[in-house]
Specification:
The complex is a heterodimer of chains A (303) and B (446).
Chain A lengths: L1 H6 L4 H30 L2 E2 L7 E2 L3 H8 L1 H15 L1 H15 L5 H15 L2 H11 L6 H8 L14 H9 L4 H13 L2 H9 L4 H30 L2 H7 L11 H11 L3 H28 L12
Antiparallel strand pairs in A: 1-2
Helix pairs in contact in A: 2-15, 3-15, 4-12, 4-14, 5-10, 5-12, 6-10, 7-13, 10-12, 11-12, 12-15, 14-15
Chain B lengths: L1 H10 L5 H23 L5 E8 L2 H17 L3 E8 L2 H13 L6 E5 H9 L7 H6 L10 H6 L1 E2 L2 E2 L1 E3 L3 E2 L1 E5 H6 L11 H11 L12 E4 L4 H10 L19 H15 L7 H6 L2 H6 L3 E6 L4 H4 L7 E4 L9 E4 L1 E5 L6 H11 L2 H10 L7 H4 L2 H4 L9 H5 L4 E2 L7 H16 L5 H18 L6
Parallel strand pairs in B: 1-2, 1-3, 9-10, 12-14
Antiparallel strand pairs in B: 3-13, 4-5, 6-13, 7-12, 8-10, 8-11
Helix pairs in contact in B: 1-2, 3-16, 10-11, 20-21
Classes of the chains: A mainly alpha (303), B alpha/beta (446).
């Protein structure tokens, strides 16, 4: 059997294709097919208990005129602004810091990656404890240092920063990608720059960052989409969108419409609006990147 | 048998005689096994049953199901348990929508209507009429009424619980206070809570709260009624909340003053850090408002003595019905087997088991007045308090969107309770924001 397989002489590309096939199948069955169905559903009134009734574009209008929907869009966008750049720079600088080899650095690298593989629910519950206003370790520490700490998830002004703070710890994937890119970079470049008299800052600015720009751009896309669409578990388990809608985001709106109010049509319409907004953000990022000439030299890689 | 052998021979022409014989023997054994499993009595009919609640409540239903299964060889009830009532509703909605609901589900009367209005439940009138174990007259009428939709009984109520005051008797004794009487006023209640709210070490942080109560419409409702205020404009065909009417508003003001003026309940941060029920269990909150649901959990307390008292009275006395019913899904395959379990659970034997676990105030008058409920030899010894509530018990309107109405109103009441907005503002916002749900609702036509 193995003999016959090796005799097939798969090209490098075919082998990649074969490796990615399960994921492609998964995305098709679990994401694309339901998404197409829900696009159809967005034009119907459907409560899952009685047959769907044609609604035209009413669901899109309903989503658009709903105050809560507009609020959720604003909050979702706000939740991108702070965490995404911080997560990205965090991933990059930690990777740069832990780039060298060393016995202890291995442990540090594992420690940076670890929070990322904690299941979402466990991660959220752990932070619920960490951010407990009276008995949480964070506020105990801050109080011991003489600060008057906020109530975090309970306080409307601090709830969003608290969520951003939580997001900062799950940077493992970006970290690994940056680390791989840094290892991939020929060390001669840095050596040459040093010989030419460039200090650390100049090397970073003129050599490393431009070389890594395409990868950082890719990570930005990924993080924007992730933060925009995938923060549901954490918000649902920590604040349920509160206090008084301070952390009410689009995924939460979609969930409530669908599973609480049984308005699956409105939920589907809102989901497609979310897709559209995600697309717009990515297009905007591409335009900015083109303007800054980021990634244009490695077009095959990203753009 | 020959055919099996010949097929085997064709397939494995080269196989040895020995091998053929062992194969024949194996297939013979297999057929024999099939035969005896066919003859040896039917497999019991499976009935699924889903409940919500704390671990202690789950144990109560486990007792009930075990007793039933032990006495019924032909039916096997399988218990599923979802801890939080909020998730329970979502789970039920999803399973009903998928067409695979549990055969029997335990539902609060406030949640039943949205399922009943969509025709998801099997009416139980004809089953009850044919029962030799139970009659409609055996139940408290107020409980049956809460599960009657468009003239049909949709679920069989297990209990007539109501909101009462759970109190830590040791803290009352330590403060030199007598335990609450069978009749007391809002003023006495408030004064008691003030006395029991203590900062023992004088560091400015309150160590013991006098009272714990959820800031919600369902908790505030009995006080609104006690002040002769209305909750909605029409009990049977409501079109809006009426929290802005002066008596309703005054009651809400008194309710929120418990936090904003008297400071006898934990603030928002304190509540979020450790909720009032946990504080009551830990012995740092003296009085806690809850229905009977908490009793199985409170019975695990061994560090202090506790008991129950009625709600204080305002201008009049009023209490609020808490009741859960056994509901039969319209899609259930074995409805008769499922009914056999519902009937058992709500017979004198079944309700006596549940009453014994502390979970229920039995809806069967005979069990409610028996020693199993009134003198179980365990706390609360003042169980009569729940039964005294029966004549003054009221319920929220039966409309299909009530759940959504409560959750929106709760958001505004919570803000007023913690002083973010005035009571007037909360009442106005709650009324305004819930209007759309009244418009969408299915009403209970008599």
């Amino acid at each position: 059997m193995p003999e016959r397989l090796s005799r097939l002489r798969l090209s490098r590309q075919d082998r990649w294709g074969l490796l990615l096939l399960p994921y492609a199948l998964g995305i098709f069955v679990l994401v694309i097919v339901p998404a197409v169905f829900s696009f159809g559903l967005a034009f119907f009134h459907y409560d899952a208990l009685s047959p769907p009734v044609w609604a035209g574009t009413l669901n899109f209008v309903l989503a658009y005129t709903d105050e809560l929907f507009l609020l959720s869009v604003r909050h979702s966008l706000a939740l991108i602004l702070l965490p995404v750049p911080l997560r990205l720079f965090g991933a990059f600088f930690v990777a740069r810091l832990l780039q060298r080899n060393g016995r202890f650095l291995n442990w540090f690298r594992a420690a940076v990656y670890l929070p990322t593989i904690v299941p979402g629910a466990a991660f959220a519950l752990a932070w619920l404890w960490i951010l407990n206003p009276l008995y949480g370790p964070l506020n105990l520490l801050l109080r011991a240092l003489g600060f008057a700490p906020p109530a975090w998830l309970i306080d409307p002004t601090w709830a969003r920063p608290a969520l951003a703070l939580m997001a900062l710890w799950q940077i493992g994937e970006g970290f690994i990608v940056c680390l791989a890119a840094l290892y991939d970079m020929p060390p001669d470049l840095e050596d040459a720059a040093r010989i030419d008299g460039a200090n650390g800052r100049a090397t970073l600015r003129h050599i490393i960052l431009p070389l890594l720009a395409p990868i950082l751009l890719l990570l930005t896309f990924r993080d924007v989409i992730l933060t925009f669409q995938e923060t549901f578990t954490q918000i649902y388990l920590t604040t349920q969108g509160g206090p008084y809608y301070a952390t009410y985001t689009m995924p939460l709106f979609i969930y409530e419409q669908g599973f609480d109010l049984q308005a699956f049509g409105v939920a589907s319409a809102a989901m497609w609006v979310m897709y559209a907004i995600t697309g717009l953000i990515v297009v905007a990022l591409v335009v900015i990147a083109r303007q800054w000439h980021i990634g244009t030299t490695e077009e095959t890689f990203v753009l | 048998m020959e055919r099996v052998q010949s097929q085997t021979n064709q397939k494995r022409g080269a196989a040895s005689n020995n091998r053929q014989r062992s194969l024949l023997c194996l297939s013979g054994c297999f057929i024999f096994l099939l035969l005896i499993s066919g003859c040896g009595g039917k497999a019991p009919t499976a009935v699924s049953f889903m409940v919500f609640g704390d671990p202690a409540e789950y144990n109560a239903y486990e007792d009930l199901v075990d007793t039933f299964n032990a006495g019924h060889d032909d039916i096997q009830v399988e218990l599923t348990h979802v801890p939080s009532p909020g998730e329970y509703r979502t789970r039920l909605l999803t399973e009903f929508a998928a067409g695979t609901p549990p055969d029997i589900s335990l539902m609060n009367y406030r949640r039943v209507v949205s399922f009943a209005a969509n025709g998801m439940l099997e009416p139980l009138d004809s089953y009850l009429a044919q029962s030799s174990l139970i009659q409609p007259e055996d139940f408290y009428p107020v409980a049956l009424d809460a599960f009657t939709w468009q003239g049909q009984l949709m679920c069989l109520p297990q209990n007539i619980s109501s909101l009462v005051v759970y109190y830590n008797a040791d803290l009352f004794a330590a403060a030199g206070l007598p335990e609450p009487a069978d009749k007391w006023t809002w003023e006495e209640f408030g004064q008691t809570a003030v006395t029991l709210t203590r900062d023992f070490d004088g560091d400015g942080t309150i160590d013991q709260y006098g009272l714990g109560v959820e800031p919600s419409l369902f908790r505030a409702a009995p006080f609104i009624w006690q002040n002769n205020g209305p909750l909605v404009d029409d009990e049977t065909q409501p079109t809006r909340l009426t929290l802005t009417r002066p008596p309703s508003l005054a009651a809400l003001q008194w309710f929120t003053d418990l936090h904003n003026v008297a400071h006898v309940v934990p603030g928002r941060e304190e509540e979020a850090s450790q909720d009032s029920e946990s504080r009551f269990l830990a012995g740092t909150t003296a009085m806690y408002l809850n229905s009977r649901r908490g009793v199985p959990t409170y019975r695990e307390i061994d560090s202090f003595a506790w008991n129950v008292a009625p709600l204080p009275n305002g201008q009049t006395s009023a209490s609020i019905l808490h009741s859960d019913g056994f509901c039969l899904a319209g899609t259930a395959v074995n409805k008769d087997a499922a009914w056999t379990f519902i009937e058992f659970a709500n017979s004198v034997e079944g309700q006596t088991i549940l009453a014994g676990t502390g979970r229920t105030v039995p809806s069967l008058i005979a069990v409610a007045q028996s020693d199993a409920f009134l003198n179980p030899g365990q706390s609360p010894s003042r169980a009569q308090v729940y039964l005294d509530n029966a004549p003054i018990m009221r319920r929220v309107p039966l409309i299909s969107t009530w759940e959504e109405i409560e959750s929106v109103a709760d958001e505004e009441i919570e803000r007023a309770f913690y002083g973010d907005i005035s009571v007037e503002e909360a009442a106005r916002l709650a009324t305004q924001r819930t209007e759309e749900y009244f418009l969408r609702a299915d009403f209970n036509a008599p």
